[in-house]
Amino acid sequence: MIINKYYKYLIKPDVRQKQIIDDTFAAVNFVHNCYLSDLEKGIRMEKRAVDIAARYKKEYPFLKQIDGSAIMNEIFHCQDAGKKHRRYRSENESMNSYCTANLPKSPVRILNGEYLCVTKLGKVKMAYSRPIPEKAVIKAACIMCCPDGKYYASILIAYEKKKETYVIDPDKSIGIDYSSPHFFVDDKGNRVDMPHYFEESEKRIHKEIKKLNRMVKGSNNYKKQKLKIAKIHAHVKNQRMDFLHKLSSDIANRYDVVCMEDLNMEQIASRFSLAKRTYDNAFGIFQNLLKYKMEEQGKKILYTDRYYPSSKTCGHCGYINNGLRIDERIWICPGCGMIHDRDVNAAKNIRKNCLERYYGRRVSG
Ligand SMILES: [Zn+2]
Which of 15, 98, 130, 294 is the most buried (most CB within 10 A)? Predict the structure, then answer.
């Protein structure tokens, strides 16, 4: 089994390297716009990306100075977007990233855990915060500049992993129900909340945006304030990813089977409508992280039936309480009289339903 993964690192290009990177962003953007305008004009495009690239380089000789792989990749991207009928990047959406493949002619390498070597740039200082796995092959590097002015390299690596022969123990399972105002509640009665610092950062961002709106557009102070806001945003994003990574690793390490509801992102958004801005798509990210961390260990994520009424069903006697209102956090089962915490009962039902569906076994409690 081949595993593909991105490893992202902060890089610190010097003035000369920054110039080259910025020129490459501009060139890649230029190629993108050329491709779009060619399409609009009805120009017959060459089938092979390499021929399109050759034509552009002939028409616009300055492209010859630019990393050829970055240009090729942008053309691949355009061709791909066309095939899948995806929306093209709009013209004013500036693209502050480019990807370059690790090719014999233009190698991408990590040197002494200190430098990233990329064609045209040479040795760029990097914060090698986590080592790539042994025997991993570097496939490509994507260089990007974030709104806070920091540069990053996302390095795509591939490595061979033996197919997991892990034996799953269905007893080591957890049911998870996401519910506002908590992030999620599990079948053991644990409630996991999003840390409070997100709310605080939200307030800070709003305060700084108010300040920004009072400034003269385009002035130096305006630009400084914009950068300040971008930095807070980046900080919040890092904090959130850190929280989601830790939480998903913890669950993936502790359990063999995670049981969840089969919700799509829209349903998640509608559940979080009140707190949507704070939560945004954190749960979606969490699900994805958890999924790959479980799969990597040969473990499983199971989903309930789409229409399984996890909240309304009494986990004790199976009675379906159709009269249950959304604001009833605690309810008494009309069938057996058991007192339920809405979320914990739902999480228990989710676990039960999944294990019954996949393992055909009855679960107690
Ligand atoms: Zn009951």
Answer: 98
* Least confidently predicted of 25-29, 74-78, 256-260, 273-277: 273-277
Work out the average pLDDT over 292-299.
89
Domain spans of the chain, in order of start: 2-160, 167-365
For 139-175, give one letter per residue: b (16+ CB within 10 A) or e: ebbbbbbbeeeebbbebbbeeeeeeeeeebebeebbb
d(CA 212, CA 232): 14
How many angstroms is it from 270 CA to the middle of ligand 1?
28
Residue with tokens 């979606």: 284
Instruction: Yes or no: say if 308 and 315 are a contact pair by the CB < 8 Å rule.
Output: no
Mean pLDDT within 310-329: 92
Calculate how far, in angstroms, residue 217's C-alpha sits from the geometric centre of ligand 1: 62
CA–centroid distance, 304 to ligand 1, in Å, is 20
Tell me 365's DSSP state. Answer: -
More confident residue, 356 or 3: 356
Residues with Cβ within 8 Å of 139's Cβ and at least 6 positions away in sequence, in order, are: 4, 101, 102, 156, 157, 158
Identify the bridge partners of residue 331 per DSSP, sorted by sequence position: 340
d(C-alpha 301, C-alpha 295), whole Å: 8
> Under 8 Å CB-to-CB from 122, ≥6 apart: which residues?
17
Ligand 1 centroid–CA 316 distance in Å is: 5
